[in-house]
Amino acid sequence: MNIQLSEHFTNKKLLKFTLPSIAMMIFTSIYMIVDGLFVSNFAGKTAFAAVNLIMPVLMILGTIGYMFGTGGTALVSKVYGEGDKEKANKYFSLIVYFAFVVGVVLSALVFVFIRQISAMLGAKGELLNDCVIYGQIVVATMPFFILQVMFQSFFSAAEKPMLGLIITLSAGLTNIVFDMVLVLLLPAQYKLMGAAIATTLSQTVGGVVPLIYFFKKNKSILRLGKTEYNGKAILKACTNGSSEFMTNLALSVVGILYNFQLINFAGENGLASYGVMMYISTIFSAVFFGFTMGVAPIVGYNFGAKNYSELKNLRKKSLWIIGVFGVAMLLLAQVFAVAVSKLFVGYDKVLLLLTINGFRIFAISFIFAGFGIFVSGFFTALNDGLTSALIAFLRTFVFQVIAILTLPNMLGIDGVWISVVVAEFMSLVLGAFFLIIKKKKYNY
């Protein structure tokens, strides 16, 4: 039996409802790092460095999906909670169509200028050619990835989080299977290309299948259909989702800045080592993002229904759960740092030692990261996009930039890893501040 947005949520029920979203984000992260795992072990260090160098650019496009997904979910859930189902579905359709068109236009621009972009990031010679090969192939289906990310949010709003998980698993398995076939069987010079093709196939599955589902008559509370342009609704969805857009955009921009610092301090080894940490942290952060994504439509619904006692209940239980997740992740990261590092770069002793040491320091950030992610998402669900965006901007950009520009100069390569820890701790303090000063306004 489906759990409805209007129900009272205990810890157990909240975890049960958000678990598919958590799993969905984890598996999305896992299949996104499969390319890196196969490329590193079978295509070599230079190809792996190329993937890590160009990936932030590709993920900037993916932020479109996060923005319209989270912001659109908040708007649609609120309208649905107010009792206007027809209007909610029109908004849902409009947001999906609009985001896809934007994705097509931006992806085309990146495809055309990928070589120039890669060169601006510092790529030269073989590294530059590998960036172009991987980037052009993956960006070709990026509009479908935008849909996939967007639908991950809307499946929870449609009260069908488990279906979203199934589709994500299907996309992930597509990537893994084709990585095994293409990367392992193709000649050495085509292995990077094979990994990129595997990613495009998985993105197509992840975006097209839910598109078909929502177009057809279904058992969810949402369905794609006729709509009309509504600039205010688009603007509201963008405003609501601006924090998620800012988070992912800033992470990509900051990732580029980290790459510059790593090239200066450790060359290709630094890029490869940082790539391992980014892949693993993506999985760990997926737990926080997945939980927040799952809770958001519940918060949005109860905010629209003016059920303030349930808002307070959701806020308390969510913070407690986030705290437990953070401690668990820190412990897991410390225990498995060596094994994970060997999995990616065990073929190079110097690179392996650099990665293990960096990962143990980097992992401390997990105990703080979930708080900032949740608080930002919580305000998004309350349709307070400005506060959410401010938290996200300071957390993912300002704090990170200040740390990465100062600490490495004082502490060397270790300062790169410590920068993340300092930035996430500051985001915890910031999130606590906004929760306190906004409590009376939203009655949570």
Q: Short summary of the structure?
A:
With 444 residues, the protein is mainly α. The chain has helices at residues 11-43, 45-81, 85-120, 125-139, 142-157, 161-185, 191-215, 231-240, 242-304, 308-345, 349-362, 366-381, 385-411, 413-437, 439-442.
Q: Can you give a write-up of this model?
A:
The chain has 444 residues and is mainly α. The chain has 15 helices and no strands. Helix 1 packs antiparallel against helix 7 (191-215) and helix 12 (366-381) packs parallel to helix 14 (413-437). The radius of gyration is 21 Å and the shape is globular. The protein starts with 10 loop residues before the first helix and ends with a helix.
* Rg from Cα: 21 Å
Task: Kindly report how far apart the N and C termini lie.
Answer: 28 Å
Record field, number of beta strands: 0
Q: Stretches where pLDDT falls below 50 for ≥5 residues?
A: none
Q: How much helix, percentage-wise, in residues?
A: over 70%
Would you tell me the structural class of the helices and strands? mainly alpha
Helices, by number, come to 15
SSE order and pairing:
Layout lengths: L10 H33 L1 H37 L3 H36 L4 H15 L2 H16 L3 H25 L5 H25 L15 H10 L1 H63 L3 H38 L3 H14 L3 H16 L3 H27 L1 H25 L1 H4 L2
Helix pairs in contact: 1-2, 1-6, 1-7, 1-9, 1-10, 2-3, 2-4, 2-5, 2-8, 2-9, 3-4, 3-5, 4-7, 5-6, 5-7, 5-9, 6-7, 8-13, 9-10, 9-11, 9-12, 9-13, 10-11, 10-12, 11-14, 12-13, 12-14, 13-14
